[in-house]
Amino acid sequence: MSQSLAPAGPMAAVVLTGDLARPARLTVADLSGWPRHRAEVSFECATSGVRRHRFEGPLLHEVLLGAGPGFDRTRRKDRLRFLIAVTGADGHRALLSWGEIDPDFGRAPVLLATRIDDTPLDRHGPQLVLPQDRCGARHISGITGIRVDGGYPVV
Fold this sequence. Notes:
Elements: E1 13-18, E2 24-27, H1 28-31, E3 37-45, E4 49-57, H2 60-66, E5 83-88, E6 93-97, H3 98-101, E7 111-113, E8 115-116, E9 119-120, E10 127-129, E11 143-149
Parallel strand pairs: 1-11
Antiparallel strand pairs: 1-2, 3-4, 4-8, 5-6, 5-11, 7-10, 8-9
């Protein structure tokens, strides 16, 4: 029988903020409303060698589109000025560009994983999974916040 990742206590949630028409607070159960995608991932860890896991959850791109990002949808390139900052409960942070996850550009299948190796992450919180990354440095467990930002001044 597998060991549970779920600590005792309330359900973890991720807060979506920034340049969004519909900021939100989402639990793993909420994220189950989006289509699920699966990824078999191998990360080459500097300290512990290769780690293999199966992840399942919605695409980050789809979830953020649902929150109404503040770019002009009629101007395709307007999306490219947006950055996505992801923060975990342990303080780990990663930065992605909108172009990286957008199907018209990088098309990276970045997941907000709701399950790891068939174990639900309901109480632990979703995980950021970038299957295309060779090492897992941008993998974030227990996501607490995702900020979408497109407001950069012209230099």
